[in-house]
Here is the input.
Amino acid sequence: MRDNGKYEINIIHLFPDLLNLYGDRGNIACMEKRLEWRGITANVRQCTNKDSDIDLTGADIIFVGGGSDREQEIVCSRLLKKKDELKAHVESDGVLVAVCGGYQLLGKYYKTASTKIDGLDILDIYTDSGDTRLISNVVLECDKFSMPIVGFENHAGRTYLGEGVSPLGKVLFGNGNTGDSGYEGVIYKNVIATYLHGPLLPKNPQLCDYILKRALERKYPGFEGLEPLDDGLEELANKYIVSKYVGKA
Here is the structure.
């Protein structure tokens, strides 16, 4: 194994006290361990609603999870003050991972059944409220990975993509962004945004390593790449889900 002691990644977890549905915190643990197993230091800093300021200094990866409409509104009111800083992070190829409510907040707005929440306008997307909730296990096909992406969705919002972004994957099973578009999530530069909980990354090691690799390549030009890990158990879990819901492994 390469001597990776010289590498470190700063991960900022935004509002884990408000946005942590369906084990979203597990995504942080997954990134930490997959870096640690390779001898790379992971520095995780939490920014909570109790903090007077949101310090994004030195961020390599920013993660924001999912929560209720009320919690999203609280978080968005705080993040709007950091809108320019977040946008600068994204436009300079900083990594940002957003799940469900965090995904919706990155767009122009999120319209709930009773109100309209102004978004951060970082991604060319917007979200309207649907009449029913979209609840399902999900299997996606993404041309970046040999393994399908799997997860769980539970959202009333219908998220529509503009021309400036690409979907994360094609829906093989489940509902996705709108229930009828045939696609789920968003990729833009080094942003991965999705409705998939579960948590997402432990079920999808290739996606997790893609996120880590992009962060390391940005921070360390000439980075040689991540050492392979034994993902036998993760692959078996992924194949089981795909086989159960799509009928092939």
About this structure: The radius of gyration is 17 Å. The mean pLDDT is 92.
